[in-house]
Structure formats: C-alpha cells, structure tokens
Structure prediction request, 232 residues.
Amino acid sequence: MKPGFWSSFHNQALMALSPETTAGIDYRNRFGIAELGTRSAGIIVRNGKAGFGAVYSHFGYSQFKRHSAGIACGLRLNEKMTAGIQADFFYGRAAGSINSMESLAFEAGIAIFPSEELTLSFHLFNPLPNEIRKSFLPTVLTAGAGYYLSSDLFTGAEIEMSVRGMLILRTGFEYDTGQNFLLRGGFSTENNSFSFGIGYILNPLSFDLSFATHQQLGITSSVSVIFRINKE
Prediction:
C-alpha cells in the first residue's frame, strides 16, 4: 500500500507515484544458508503520469537455480486511483535434470486513495489457468489498506488468498524519526513471522536492512541499496 521502490513491484499501480527514476539492488539471505540466497535488481523510470519498471531476481546455487524477470507499467487514472500491470518470466533448472522449468505469468494491481491518509490496494497474480503452461503457478489475490496515523507514522494490513487454500494476514508499520532514519516492523501469520528493520536516507542513496523470523528455521536477513537517479 505504501509507495516505495520494492513495494512497487508487489503492486504495480504504485509505480505511477514514483517521483523520480530509481534503481536498486537487494540481497536476501534465508536462514543464514548461502545456497538459499536471493539477489534482485530493478529500475523504475518515471514519465508523466506513468511509471515503467523492470526487475530481475536470481535464487539458488550451482545445483539448483531459479531466475525470474518482469517488466511493468503503472498509470495514474485520476487523482483518486492508479493501476498497473506486469508480465513475468520464470526459469529454473536443477543439476542432472534434462528438462528446465519455464513459465509465463501476468499480475496487476489497483490503488485507491479515498483521502490523503488512506490507501486501499488490490493485487492479482497469475489470473490465467495453469493448463496453458508446463509448470504450476498459484493464483494469488491480495487486498489491503494503509493509513497515515500522522505525517511520520504509516500503518498497514493486508490479507492474501491463493488457490492452495492458504489465508495469510500481514500487518506492519513505518516510522520516520525525522533524522533520515526509518524504523519498520511487522507480523505475518505465515509461519508466525515477526519482522523488523531500519532505513537510512543519504541522498541520492537510501539503505535498508531488515530481519524476519521463522518459528522453526531461524532468521532471514535482507539488505538493499536504492539510488535516485534524478529529481523533478
């Protein structure tokens, strides 16, 4: 629900709100196991009422690799609504396997702004039937709301539903300390995961560090660097 570089790729409608051209890189270390690491890179280009983006991600190691890439666009429809769409390509291969795993998918999102403080957000991933592809991809619907309790404190909650039958609730907040520091925290019912993190803005760069818990497997850490190429 909150406009931001990485959140824009979770709801492409938010790309229309990007104030500038922005690029970023991210590394996520799952449970302290290097073989489960994910490396991502992306860019968003602002052009009038639209924002265009591209993202690439690599997961795994020499014995198993999974790549994903997407191109996206977000458009401001009016003062109260934005919409966006993204096309995705997934490729995976395991050592010793003859066949690779390849899939195409689409996703789309809408963001509605009833007031300056409130945002309503809806996102649909993979609306097409799996019969048209070789590999299974779930259909996932996410709906949420975000609210600024003050100019410094943003809170949000979302619910995720998928064809796998899982129902996941996520909540979170972001607090701007006013000293270029951001404090973040959240909770997800998926694996009863708590998360927390910090951000630091040093224009034109911003740095983010976060941690998420898993009730059996431990902690996943993530670090990202975002570069603002130009300002309006």
In short: The chain has one domain: 7-228.
